Amino acid sequence: MTTTPTSRLAGHLLIEALIEQGIDTCFGVPGESFLAVLDGFHEHRDAIRFIACRQEGGAAFMAEAQGKLTGRPGVCLVTRGPGATNASIGLHTAFQDSTPMVLFIGQVAAEQRDREAFQEVDYRQMFGPGTLGMAKWVGEVHDPGRLPEYVARAFHTAMQGRPGPVVVVLPEDMLTQPTEAPVLPRVEAAQSWPTPDSLETLREMLVAAQRPFVIVGGSGWDGAACTALQRFAEAWQLPVGCAFRFQDLFDNRHPNYAGDVGIGLNPELAERIRSADLVVAVGARLGEMTTGGYTLLRAPRPAQKLVHIHAGAEELGRVYAADLLIQSSMASAAHALETMGAPPVAPWAASTARAHADYEANLVSTPVEPMDMAEVIMTIQRLAPADTVYTNGAGNYSGWLHRFCRYPGLQHFGRTQLAPTSGAMGYGVPAAVAAALLYPDRTVVNITGDGDFLMTGQELATATAYGARKLISVVVDNATFGTIRMHQEREYPGRVSGTDLFNPDFAALAVAYGWNAESVETTGQFEPAFARALGNGRPTLLHLRLPAEISTSRTTLSTLRAAALANQP
Fold this sequence. Notes:
The protein has 22 helices and 20 strands. With 569 residues, it is an alpha/beta fold. The chain folds into 3 domains: 8-179, 3-Layer(aba) Sandwich (Rossmann fold); 196-361, 3-Layer(aba) Sandwich (Rossmann fold); 373-565, Thiamin diphosphate (ThDP)-binding fold, Pyr/PP domains (Rossmann fold, 3-Layer(aba) Sandwich), CATH 3.40.50. The strands form 4 sheets. Strands 3-2-4-5-7-6 form a 6-stranded parallel β-sheet, sandwiched between helices. The chain has a 6-stranded parallel β-sheet with strand order 11-10-9-12-13-14, sandwiched between helices. A 6-stranded parallel β-sheet has the order 16-15-17-18-20-19, with helices on both faces.
């Protein structure tokens, strides 16, 4: 966009800069510290919208979901002090999930700085960038003429290498100053490619292997890259597993798919990874959940030969002393792998077929009454459209979704799984609202626990206010913090403390927010209730009541205790 610079408030300039970056939706909670920005939204209301959320944590989760869905930074605006601290949960999630995101925070005026003015916080100290921080970069704008520079840098930083969140601090008095500064052009992430030598070394390692395994994960993927990765796996007949909560990067119905490498890992898959003689990790950070607490791949030196391909140079060698490190963007890496000539016969082809058969066998469950959650998830998948987006937060209830939901690859419908690798409770409802507002023609299904729901359930009001229609929230209510209860039963059997919950009537609560709602107490009641939810054209909540003992896909707490003792997360 080329325009003749004219004088306008810096707050208006910020909105122009966001529009230039392709942003048409921002999430936040309004605050007095950025009134000039809110006025900018009004000035440019035909090109961009501000979704006013009910709490900054929910707004930040929505922006993080936007980043996952679009591949460009999700944008959140909050006020100083309490607004920023509330939003920090979404920032932390974006950091651990490698999601591009920009958080704009209003700040006290310059003349009030360093006096502990009303709601004043030093955000460089609070979010200080670093390997274990919450942001890749924190910048504060003092000169309105440099505001476009800061916005462009924020988008570059959020998207380059390992994507992640960036914080830009906006002093209140700066936003009200006039400026003629022009906006800067749209930012695109620079691509890095594997070197020919590294590809040749990888090929030699594959040819020499007998039991190779591929783990795919992380961000920076698109449909073309996932297609290229699939062709690489097909050509080499390789088994592929998806890292924790990145299950939609590889078609789960593909004959090379071996399952998700995360919590509640299929024991056959766990043994397959432990016994592999070569693991090729493409994009995955190889964090605690994907590596079974750094036991599937022993840190710092795994028993298996390890090839680690990642976009961020700072990730390579940080935990694992790999045999081959390749810094590359995911699109470049996948296309390079696709061109790597495969031998006519792979000695592990039969093992790859068995890996997929093991995955399929793990989809068979033992019926549970009165509410069989495995059947609930399979019913949802059978009735919902193929491009449905699924969201969840944290809790044992998510184990059913991870085990029984079969995600298509990105090449089919884009992202279809929104889930926090950070383990943040309260993520699923705001993420579902964001998806429903960004893609109004797609069905969005949120699976949430009772404790999880009540952390951000007020965002049902946001969905109603902005016209979300094809959104279904399934609340799994067992009146307990199930994950913590599971660990209590393992460590201190029979001594439950602090995990029982008093819950409202979730269906009545949803109706109060303007939603349709039904209560479901048996497996047989679920299918007709879900069919009605799909067809009524309004957001709908289904309240599922379960006994406390039915906490995860392992069915009972006693089984969970045995699994925990056997070192199965």
